[in-house]
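Milestone M4 deliverable, item 7.
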Amino acid sequence: MIHCVATPFLFVAQACAHTCCSGAPTWWRSIDFAFLFISGVAVVRATKSSASKPVQFGLWLAWGTLTLSILFETFHPALFSEWVKYSAATALIVSHFYNLKFGRCHSDSCAIHQG
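Output delivered:
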């Protein structure tokens, strides 16, 4: 839960460091990748406990879009679009909260059917 709350603030702070502070430390400018890893682990765990295939698909789609956006921002800035990054991050947060509230498996039979 801390990750879900802290991530948007760190993405905004990190984006500010990219645009206005070219002298920001490398570890700070690459913090997106640490949060991509953490959010990837969260998506894996959420999809394992989700009973909804559309929610699982949405989680992976949002995470994949966010990953591509961050890769473009880092390696091909001309292809980067802030609205894609923030939209993907918002979709990931919303779908994660939706899954927590409505999509979770409440029995062992769900986990068995998913693999």
